[in-house]
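[job 0417] fold request received: Lauroyl/myristoyl acyltransferase
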Amino acid sequence: MTDKSVKRRRPFGVAVKDAFARGLVRLISRLPLSLIHRLGAVAGYLATLWPNRQRRNALMNIALCLPELSREQQIKLRDRNLSEFGKTYFEIGYLWLRPARQALALVREVRGAELLQREPGKGLIVLSPHLGAWELAGLYLAAQGPTAIFYKPQKYLDDLIRASRGRSGAELAPITAKGIRVLVQALERGDAVGILPDQEPKADKGAVFAPLFGVPAFTMLLVNRLARRTGAPVVFLFAERLEKDGGFRIHCIRAPEGIDSEDDIQAATALNRGIEQCVMTCPEQYLWPYKRFRRRPEGAPKIYTGALDDVHVFRQAERIRPRPS
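[job 0417] inference complete; emitting structure tokens
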């Protein structure tokens, strides 16, 4: 007789890797944040020294999205980005495991804070791209009042992630139909909902291709559906990492017009335009190594294939999106 309330046992290999990752995260989290950032920067620098997928994918995305930059500038941005990429992942344990008050004390400035004020009886849709310290952005949002966060269950560290994101009282809504109902109910109560808007949707329904920096990107329509159904305003929020003192600056930006349009392409285009505005505030801190354009329109060539060296990346990018003359 099977008790459904008993958690399914994970494969031994997964359990071992999870335990190792958990121990490493806890160890790093005990270090001073300044040292964590230095270690992360060193790890990112090492990733620039030889061809690898993270290095290739970051340069490919930068070359496609920012063709106005010279190739030298694109490489320089890629290398700076990998250092910031290292800081992002090294600091996550600190942001997860330190007391919420200590993590929130790292916020030195908030720009556009008035956009987070909630009208009585009306919810707020808050979009946090993979930019800067997105874990701190979610923690800051939840500290402002009742919040539900759209959440993708993870193979590793899932319990740790859920405990961390929920420690300010946030309700976690899984990326399922049930989770979407949680978001709707939260908005109808006048709560905020937090969504990462720049992940590639896996389902064919509820997504369309829309330009992101001029490149077709398979883009979610969930934000549009929620905004139209509930009338909730939409705001972008991200935490920019500051160089001087190890703190962060919170940015709140009003979403572009059209994000609640009845036209799916117009709505998705507005969503991506908001992401672009956020990214260009501190482009070196965006998650450029992510395969954002993995899914392509029918007949379009694949992007993240072939050799890993920079010469191949530039040739591939030139075939996909010629540089402006």
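[job 0417] notes: The two ends are 70 Å apart (CA to CA). Residues 20-320 form one domain.
[job 0417] exit 0
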